[in-house]
Structures are given as structure tokens and as C-alpha cells.
Amino acid sequence: MLPAFPDRVPWYVVGPLMGIVVVLVYALLNKRLGVSGSYTQARMFVLGRSVAEPWRIWFLVGIVGGATLTTVLRGGFVVGTDYGALGRFLPLGLVVPTLFIGGALIGFGTRWAEGCTSGHGLAGIPSRSPASFASAATFFATAVGVTFFVHVVTGGAL
Amino acid sequence: MNRVAALLGVAFGFGLGAARLNDYDVIHDMLLLREPEVFLLMASAMAVALPVLWLLERGAWHTPGGGLMRLSRSNIERKHIFGSAVFGGGWAITGACPGTALAMPAAGVALGLPVIAGVLAGQILRESIAKVRPIAPGRRRA
Predict the structure, then answer these.
(1) How many CB pairs under 8 A join A and B?
(2) Which residue range forms the structural domain that includes residue B5?
(3) Number of structural domains chain B divides into
(4) pTM for this structure?
């Protein structure tokens, strides 16, 4: 019998795997890995507009497939409305708009900055791009700052 | 090219799911600086990619279908700072980034869907503002 798939595969396995994917996207496709750009391309496809980079849509489909694979290896789907500490802190009727607004900030910001954690972080920094160093430093600093602010405002509940 | 992209996406998505980066609590604990796991994951990914990409660039690596490999580099502009600050706020609120949000419904987390819907809405809003007030000219993302 195969050993059970770990609840959380350690960083020293997943990190290098992701680093290799970043390298392969460059070495095979001559592109910078990035996920926020995949959303844009998928949106164009759904709207029937011309898709400049169709490979990004396939990359997006692959991400969903790969993540689904880990769920299957852990024993399958249990669809639910859990959302960790945030889901326990807010009622469902408030979690949904909060997540939508938070998502909108993600979409607005990554479109503006032309990259996200993967594009500017995982791929941009190894590309030695000054814009990516600045972007990653900014989104990490802001995210940590906002998280601590929320932590204080919620009395430590979040 | 598309098939290769899909396979690489599978590997990337597998990593996101395997490390539970699609779990609000994992990202929230990282951003509260309670545990170093995700920082170490990202740092090790960069530590692997940076020297290999440097070597490939130095060796003038030719990609199978796209000619000489070129690393995408841009100079720092206001948009990178302001945009990333807005993104950081959204990351803190949702515990998700565009990649991990995609991996949420794949783990049965239905509330990943409003995050994804929000990302799309935010992109559209940014594009409509950029049409009215064009952003400063700069190198387009590769």
C-alpha cells in the first residue's frame, strides 16, 4: 500500500519544484511565469476576444488540475464554506463580500503592477528585474502591515 | 507549446496544493510572521531558479520554439509600487493571491470563487480606469 499523501508537503520539496517550473517556463516557452496574466487571457477567451497568449490559459487549466490532484491524493473532495479563521470570525453573509472586495484589490493591484506573487516574486526576482524586486518588497510589506492591523483591530481573532 | 504550458501548470498547481498554500490559515500565519514555512518555500524556489536562469542566459540558451531565451526585466515605475501596495492589501484580506485562489475551489473551498470573481472584477476596473487615464508608458510585460 502506498504511504498517505502528506497533509502538508514541506517547503524544501515544493520550493525547489516551483523554482524548476519557473526555469522550465523560461527555457521551453521563453516566457516569464505568471498567474495574474492568465486571468486576463482567460477573460479574453470567455468574451470571445483575441487571445494574445493562449499558453497562459493552458497554464491556468493546469494549475487547477494539479491542485485538484493533491485533493484527490488526500482522499477526495469535501466541498464546503470553510475559510479558516476568517470564516469563523465573520458570518457567511459578510465573508463573501469581504472576499470579493479583497479579490478585487488583488485583481486591480496586480493588473496595475503587471504581476503578482508568482510573476514578480517567484519568477521576477530570479530574472533580476528591478521592478520585481520593488514590487515584491511592496506587496510583502503591505500584506504584513495590513495583516497586523487587522490582527489588532479584531482583538487577535484574525 | 500549449501542452507544455498545461503540464507545467499541473506541476505548479500541484505544488500550491501540496504545500497547502490554498489555505487561508497557512497564508495568514505567514503574514502574521508566526511561521517561516511559506517564506522558506518562496526563497528556495528563487534560490533554485536564479542561478539556473543566470547560467542559461549567460550560455545564450535557445528555447525549442521561441529563439534566444530572454529574461523579462523592467525598470521600477510608480505603477509597480502603487499596484503592489493595493495587491498586498487584498492578499492580506483574503489570504490568497491569483494562483492560490485558483487552487482553492480545487480543494473544495467554495469561498475561493468570490475571490476569483473579485480578481476578475478588479482587473476590469483597472483596465477601464487605464483607458480614461492611460498609465505611464513602460515596457510591457513579456
Answers:
(1) 461
(2) 1-33+76-135
(3) 2
(4) 0.94
